[in-house]
Amino acid sequence: MRAIISVWDKAGVVGLAQALVDLGMEIFSTGGTKRSLEAAGLPVRSVAELTGFPEILDGRVKTLHPAVHGGILARRDLPQHMEELARNHIRTIDLVVVNLYPFLETISRPGVTLEEALENIDIGGPTLLRAAAKNFPHVLVLVDPADYGPLLEKLRRGEVDLEERRRLAAKAFQHVAYYDTAISCYLREEEGFPEEFTIGLRKRQALRYGENPHQQAALYEEVGQGWGIIKARQLWGKELSFNNFLDADAAWAVVSEFTEPTVAIIKHTNPCGLACHPDLAEAYRRAYSGDPLSAFGGIVAANRQLAPEAAREVAKTFYEIVLAPGFEPEALEILKAKKDLRILDMSQAGTTPDRALDLRRIGGGFLVQTRDSFPVEDLSLRTVTQREPSEEELRDLLFAWQAVKHVRSNAIVLAKDKTLLGMGAGQPSRVGSVEIALKKASERSKGSVLASDAMFPFPDGVEIAAQGGVTAVIQPGGSVRDKEVIEAADRYGMAMVFTGVRHFRH
Description:
Number of domains: 3
CATH class of the largest domain: Alpha Beta
Strand order of the largest sheet: 8-13-12-11-9-10
Structural class: alpha/beta
Distance between the termini: 58 Å
Strand content: 15-25%
Largest sheet: 6 strands, mixed
CATH topology of the largest domain: Rossmann fold
């Protein structure tokens, strides 16, 4: 039996090769792998001995040869294949062990050039893997060092069943597909919506269960996406659950929306508390005041490093997770006193780039869209009522507009002093969301402003808001009844601003 071993990741390869030699297998190799095996004192021959041709073009061409691929692809159960091999003096190859050039690691380095990236695109390796995987009933293929030991055990027993061969082949094809996806994503850049594209995912960890205990789940990282909750570093607490990841992702998205110090409290992916203030501890207190009942068991997120004062405030309430781009040592110790609290450092998470596409699964496929990343500073606001908003109202209207973007539709937010006072989400009617927001805000709704993620189809929502003490409204506009809605606002002396942009979040 003969094997080709050519790996970038040398982990475990010497032990594998030694075991294969002990089993009587003849080993052929290339470049750095060959040198590693020779340094370990193992008998290894050059692939050039198989091909009768030297490596050329700085190693770009070394295994792309009929003597290699004929030996891999020949079907042992077809006499004509075996006769062709004999006529051409080609012997079979029974095992291929390959992993690929570090393309992802290369493009992850700051300042990497296109030339460096291209030089780290493996050609021969994927070809070897695909050839061996195609002929898996006759050829074994290994791409993952974790499979070395289990396969050796089967080889020592004298038989590798078809099911195991098929599993290893599927793993090899998937590995090549993931690798090719990384390259495609890197080269595609700003193409937008290509006719074909793949999503490369690598498993990060198994999860105890999904949204419900009867659902199985795992966490995967998307190839080439070095940002977001996936990059969180857990400093304390038990393992994150499926729902923890969903809520933490929503929490980080909310606080990343704001440039000034901001704290959000998230429950079931919606912000039930949100506030901006130069003092982060005060921002937390204001966010908590938005809905203390819902805050219990939620997630706290900040977009600034957490100091001891803020940590002490947070520690007064039970939360599942606290996340921030760093924690002062004393603040971390304060939070660690809460044994059931999970603490996430988001300093390496960054923010979601605008180029990232948003994918939503539907039956049989995906809906794909660009991110809802319309910056608040790019809004062309238009006052449509007789009264212009005051400076304070306009400040709060813009805060509310940034907040409502992160609330499930139909979304309504009430705010004052850059603090979320009440929120209505996910209702089948917009007026229902207004009523919920007013109920949450209670007496604090007097003098507040309102943001609606989409247009008011009827004047009733605005009328109810005015009766609850709301003084100004920001909404996209565009309803066939805009005139009636504006007239209702004028009757109550409200200011109303149209954005011309909506923020549906289903």
